[in-house]
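Re: folding output
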Amino acid sequence: MKVLCLSDVGELVFVFLLLFLLTTIKCLQTDWEGGCYPLTIHFSEDYPSKPPKCKFPPGFFHPNVYPSGTVCLSILNEDSGWRPAITVKQILVGIQDLLDQPNPADPAQTEGYHMFIQDVLEYRKRVRLQSKQYPPLV
């Protein structure tokens, strides 16, 4: 995973551009390869006692991303999965893994979930199409 850009946009909010390029071994030969996916991570004043909020752009297509763009990942769950010792790297790797290996037991958006469950080939096609909407910046 590469972090291309880290820019402060105020009050402990950082924008990470995750690149899934040929240099990213884990994403080689996946449907997500080739996209540069903007991810906003908001660290509240209670961090690390409370997890950061992680968001892709609204409407991002994935079974475990809410329509608002918020990522649904167990380690980001304040009530059960979060531990203050979890690092930003672990969060980013967890999100990267989640992209290619959705968790159907914890859906966050209807369209992505149903397509993943009912027609995985169409789901994969949609993911590849989405990767073209987020071209690499380098």
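--- second protein (sequence, then structure) ---
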Amino acid sequence: VGGVRNTCHGVELILGGHHNTIRVFLNELVQSVPATGRIEHMIEEPTDPIPGCESFSIATSISEETLEVVIPPDQATCADCLRELFDPANRRFGYALITCTVCGPRYSIIEKLPYDRERTAMRRFPLCEQCRAEYEAPNDRRFHAETIACAACGPNVHLISPSGTVAAADPILAAVDLLRVGRIVAIKGIGGYHLACDARNESAIGELRRRKRRPHKPFAIMVSDLELASQFCEVGEVEARLLRSVEAPIVLLKRREPMLPDMLAPDNNRLGIMLPYTPLQHLLARHFDALVMTSGNVTDEPIRYTEQGLRDLLGPIADFALTHPREIANPSDDPVVVVQSDESVLIRRARGYVPTPLSLDIGGTAILSVGADLKNTCAFALGPRVYSSPHIGDLEYPAAFRRHVEEIERFTKWFGLRPVAIACDMHPGYFSTQNAHKLARQWGAQLVEVQHHHAHVAACLAEHGLSEEIIGVAFDGTGYGTDGAIWGGEFLVASPGRFRRFGHLAYHSLPSGEQSIHEPWRALAAYLIEIFGSKRARSVFQAHVPAVGDIQEVISGLAGPIRPPRTSSMGRLFDAVGVLLGFPPEISFEAQNATAVESLCQGVPLPPYDIEMGATESLGPDDDRDCFEISLWGLFEGTLADIEAGCEREVIADRFHATVVETIVRGCRHVRERTGLARVALSGGCFANTVLVEGACSRLGGDGFEVLLRRHVPPNDGGIALGQLAVAGERLRAKG
């Protein structure tokens, strides 16, 4: 006898009976947890007998102010629901929003906690008689399924155009017909809208690119099953497991010979593929070899998820929309995963993975971290757990910044408290940093500024539960350094509480500042001018970089009275080498050329270009007294020699990657000789590059190093918020 109920701290179970019977019950409970659930810990306490209790019941949930509960993530449609969906004899046959106790929306529909139907978007749909009976029947698989629904009680799917609802006997089949003739359809998913078109229709893909203002960035596709995925791409055992998982991420897979248009992912040997994870997607996917399924937004802005958001899409981008009235309370994009060395690595942590907490014990202190401006996420640390927002986007876009503010408000509302400290990047121009300053003043919270690359390494330490010093290799595109320069090719010795800079790529100018990021020919020009002089730089441009801006503009700028920013960025180096290899001198998305250079690699072991290490010209405030810098002269000299000798681009790409790997190994050896440390964290956006990661891990492992990677939070700036929390927690602990 007894009862069970949800609380804001977890599940409370009250049991009465013989001691042995209770022990057997608890043992069976632990052993029969469903695949989508887990028991983190169990606390047992004796209680007084329950007067008048003669049965077992589910009691009303308790709503409290401060939360410690694990908020359930959204789950892909389960096998049992799929059987019912396609069973003509089942009353939910063809019902596009079928769910049960183990699958369907969770996080995305929660308005308040604890998780009960009346606190979700489903409260607007009273149960019909049959659904009510299933909900209340202990032996039914939908017993207390908070998302239970059917066609009789709703919600239901309908098709709309910019002028209003489209009359259709079957809205889904009507949408299929529209997609077949090249139309673009917005489709409501769990965390927001997708924009879909036929992945074999080049005209439709081109039109979607034009409307979405996404000229080159890859599109993900959805296929109905693993067999089709294997026709288009190489699918290994780990990739197959990921595709079929309850999280159902987009998995980046190596493409086979082109069976689908190259324009899905130009200059990229990988293709993002996902399997259907909602019933509606399953009903659509069976009619196509592949559908483009890209986020319902304008490129780099957050995914649209409301009725107003749909109006922004319908007409300007989508011709029609397949939607329904189940509201999305908490939006999230699709997660993206890649497999490196037979292990999964999250590139974008979002739907299905969020808001499952990460472990980071910072004591009883509540800390908010606001992340970085690119690939922004924010996170809230409470006790031993870190709750991260889904991927938000780039905060230079007003819609993304508004979403960033909303996610912070959601944390404070759900947890019923304000943080005692706020961690942010030290870049004074970041929107996230400026917002952190504002919130710290508003809430009277302590502000903790964290250097960008220290946060990258600290995130890796936090994921692995480490607090001691390690060697941190932080390679990315940009990060504000303590000397005011733009860092990005760093060798650090770091613990969560502090860091020292032991080495970096040699500084070079970044002409026109931010403009060089979008126009990497400018960065290439600066490298060549500063390494070889203006005369040779001009001749290289005339021979190998035709039809770009005037190199004289860069020459004049470097010689002018106002010095451009200086950078040690590995990301800028990848971009510049990409231009030398014939990729766009002006790019439309971050890491466009870096991805293209990686895609050229054939995995052939070739010798690296020459590397020279020497002392830094001047020490910064956090530089070790023996800080080294790595000259890029040999790399560019060798690359130009190979180009002029007529070497294939694939050979040069392999040698370039071998050079970056050699740089990592030699830099880590230098630090080990100085410190005795042999544990290395590889962190930063450049380590989304599988060729680089696998090459570095192999070489470092063979040289006696233990290598740590970020796998559960992205190696790019999407993982910065976790690192900021780790640093802030340690600094607060040190202060007592």
